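Worked problem 6 (solution included).
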Amino acid sequence: MTKYPVGIQNFEKIRRNGYAYVDKTAAIYWLAETGSYYCLSRPRRFGKSLLLSTMKDYFEGKKELFEGLAIAGLEKDWGEYPVLHLDLNARNYTDVSALHAELNKYLIQWEEKYGLDQRDLAVEERFYFVIKKACEITGRKVVILVDEYDKPMLEAIGNPELQEDYRSTLKAFYGNLKSCDEYIKFAFLTGVTKFGKVSVFSDLNHLTDISLDSRYVDICGISEAELRTNFDEGVAELATANNMTKDECYARLKRDFDGYHFQPDTVGIYNPFSLLSTLASGQFKDYWFETGTPTFLVHQLLKTNFLLEDMTREELTVDTLNSIEIMDENPLPLLFQSGYLTIESYDPEFGTYTLGFPNREVEEGFTKIGINFNTEKRLIDDWKVVERIK
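Solution. The predicted structure is:
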């Protein structure tokens, strides 16, 4: 019986406990082999945390966990590197102290590990000395992995003062990726949006964004080929449980959960959370959408007065598609980066993209949001009219 890793984001746990694993290790090997600094944006619950966990175990030299995977045949020189893994997803960022408290939590752990005591310094200074000390003590360059680098910025949308505080803190903190280059082997940062490119990482011109790189469109999520190779038996069981043929079941899964495109004319990617949840439970449901719509998204839709019916009509250039800074006027880049819209077509003559809903789950879910959104918007508009009359 297949064990589906629904909600499990730890690579070692998946491998030691016999959960199904879709092999992404070849991509990890080539990233490490061909470069040093990367960032990746993907929608929530799309496998980013598992990707970083896999990288962590790879760079820590846990060779036994990778037996039978692609990287086992590629890596000839397994090394053990000091890894600094920072996960910013574990806290709600509601005030100035929240981000500092979260960074401090990790800094204390690292300082204790490497024999440092410098809590009187600023967090960015402490991070610098941790990187330097880890390299000096181990004799190996440091690997830095950051999960959900943009969560503090996203949660501060609607509070410009707090967002600016977070931006200043993170910009100085991540600035060590440049100033500590001589001590760093590899750095990989994941998030939902492109906040980093326009503000937090604006000084890091050596950071390679692979979010729209055709070579890595399937580094997170599950492709059609991966679904059929890894889960054909599970699809057959799902079909039986729902009185369908296997072909009908594949078609239903494709309609409901496939369709994410991070470059034109590339393979569609299934939402892994909804797909694995469906296979595990034997029931078709909108698992990803039911986990909730981010507050920042609703806030921006209300703020921009953008017509929901225009979402799949407007054409965007690649610069616009990547621009989070225009979200106060146009929410489409934010919707694309958050996974509610995807690339539907590309016009090479004009260099413009048209967006669309990736699949039935998102389209129907967003329709429900649209109804609630338009109702709330009308109430706000009515209130404004009443206030003007007063």
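Discussion: The longest helix spans residues 360-389.
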